[in-house]
Amino acid sequence: MKRTYIITGIIIVCIALFLLIRSVYNSNEQNDTSAKTQSLLNVFQFMSAPEPQEEIPPVDPEKVETYEIEQANFIKEIILEKNPVCAGEDFKVTVIAKNPFGPDGHLVYRISNKLGNPAILRFTKAGLREFYVTVRDEGKHIDMRKVQINVVDCADKPIVTLSARLHNLEPESAIFEVTSQKGLTGKCTYEWDFGDGTYATTQTGYITHSYASRDQKGLQSSFIAQVKVTDANGISAIGRGSISFPNVHYLSNLMGNPVIPVLYNKFPSIDSAYITVEINMKNIFDDPVAFNTAVLECRPCNTALSPDYKNINPGEILESTFIAPKSSVKQLLKVPKSLLPKSTCNLNITLSGPYPNNREIYAKIFLNIPPQSKDDIDTTRDKIITDDEMIEKLNKAAQILGKDKPITPQDIQKLEREGKL
Fold first, then answer.
1. pLDDT tens figures, 238-247
2. Does 61 reside within a domain?
3. Which end of the chain is more exposed for a tag (fewer CB within 10 A), N or C?
């Protein structure tokens, strides 16, 4: 039986990633692939929609795009880690689903207000609670189930509440923060397990973590992170949170022009001759990659001016232009400063090469270059800091992060939350 659903949501993944997909989309076969492309964009929107707020503003139905989808039978089993569960305590929900229309990796999940599968949920009030599980594919099929769980009050039990959310400025990273510690006193230590084989220990309940090196084998990647909090008396409790990422690079291949992930520091090293940054390019696909073109987009410090473009041989800036299937290449990217106009503050590099079925494959690097001279700074356009307290914070941040790294407002906020400033 066909049903029509109105799908709404605001894409919170960095707009640059969305534009990345659209910018490399090949329109040679647009008439044949436009429906598939729209379906992929719809599922990307579903994966990227934010968690609902307590109050949702009214929406004019006439201004909401709609499309028809069909009820499917994806969900085979929903596994609750525990039932009943204590009020405020987290519990894991795992969905077993099968996709009769394609690969199981093309199913995407929303469990209550959490994207991904499995997911960590919690309820703060006792009683019989319910939530919904939604599973859909990249086409027009969707499945939904209502789940009930019994929540009970538990006295004298230490409980840690861990918040997990996507980083709004670093779309491949997550922010984890302990928002509540019940039954723990004094100074605490925090032992982190990010669910991807990496760990950390901190003295505060706030940390960020990058999942950019994850394998992308489907439309969605989900992780469960946990933190063990131990107080001054040796009492400990564990809090968990789940995080899910839309696999933009995997999706780009389905849309016609694959884009490979590149890991790098957006602030390069700069000397008198070169702009240098270490990059790690990961070929997540089944065919080799050989780049034969590089385009440099040089954006001036004065944003009122137009960027300058240069086409070069990628061998001029890369040590290796070849990446074997399912492998990574770590190397130095070195751009001669002689290639850049004066007063360049942003350097965007697009690498491309041929790919099977008459396609192109891409990699993109976005570098920030701090002003190199007084001529790059306009006091009517750029803010000059005169706050002594902020200058002191910047100096402390430079000692922690390195004097050659420009300090951003996000760096200051992160160091403050970590208790380092």
1. 999 999 999 9
2. no
3. N
